[in-house]
Amino acid sequence: MTGEVFAQLFVNGLASGMVYVLIASGLILVLGVARIFNFAHGEFYMLGAYATFAFYQALHLNFFLSVAIAVIVVAAFAGVCYRFAFHYMRGNLLLCAAASMGLSMMLERGALLGFGTQERGMPSPFTGTLTVYNVVVPVEKMTVILLCVAVMCGLYYLLMSTKLGKAMRAVKLDTEVAALQGVNTTKVYALAMATGCALAGLAGGIIAPLYSITPGMGHTVLLKSFMVLIVGGLESMVGGVVGGLVIGMTLSFGYYLVGGLSEILLFGVIGVILVFKPGGLFGEVVEDV
């Protein structure tokens, strides 16, 4: 493997890994704060991709504006889902999981009815390549990386430096104590659900120009998100970042080294990690969440 090939594989792995980081971070936020294991998270990712496609292709809006509107649509829809469904069953993990499975099937069926089974695609707004020390990097991959890094920095600022972020962290640590301190827990739960699903929708909008859009695209990404949580730790944001990068890099280099066996290689890597760190790299072994 030459240095140029290594650098290209690294960039590809970083781009896909950062997308997994966005999706998994949203899943961790919903699980950690609202205590909802959201099996419809992949469908919110799919919804973000389709919404971006609709605004960009049908209405001919600017790509960044299309993604921004798509994220708002996904966040609003997630908030409505929480208010009229999950709010009444929050606290019962199994019941919420069952409800999210039902929501997943409804969203996928809705996408099939609205857009059909045909794969959709949209032209990339970022064309051309960058050449750095003989390494050719597509502009669209660099754009994905920079956007994801910027969003994760914004998420870090939200959680660590804003009143809402502090309220979310307080609710995650102890709901009853947070409520006694005047935190509106119901509002925090809804905002956590909306923010987490918005991150998935944002990821879908970002990758819409790179890959085909289908009603079933959420299933694969949800499985990868679960792998990220397993590798990094169930409720660790830092673990989500590291886990996403591990998954992205393993798949990128795996496809080059072993081709179709890269999925087996990925499960092997996860197995080795779990042998030494059963709770994930930055998590702990838990029996109940």
Strand proportion, as a percent range, falls in under 5%
What strand line-up does the widest sheet have?
Answer: 1-2
Summarize the amount of helix as a percent range.
over 70%
Uncertain runs are none
Which H/E pattern describes the elements?
HHHHEEHHHHHHH
Shape: globular
- Please state the structural category: mainly alpha
Q: What is the strand tally? A: 2
Summarize the biggest pleated sheet: 2 strands, antiparallel
- Averaged pLDDT: 89
Determine the N-to-C terminus distance: 44 Å
Q: Over all CA atoms, what is the radius of gyration?
A: 19 Å
What does the secondary structure layout of this molecule look like, with pairings?
Layout: H1 3-34, H2 41-58, H3 63-84, H4 93-115, E1 129-132, E2 135-138, H5 139-161, H6 163-173, H7 175-180, H8 185-207, H9 217-232, H10 237-258, H11 262-276
Essential attributes:
289 residues; single chain
Can you walk through the features of this model?
- This protein is mostly helical.
- Helix content is 73%, strand content 3%.
- The protein has eleven helices and two strands, in the order ααααββααααααα.
- It has helices spanning 3-34, 41-58, 63-84, 93-115, 139-161, 163-173, 175-180, 185-207, 217-232, 237-258, 262-276; strands at 129-132, 135-138.
- A two-stranded antiparallel ribbon has the order 1-2.
- The model has no long low-confidence stretch (mean pLDDT 89).
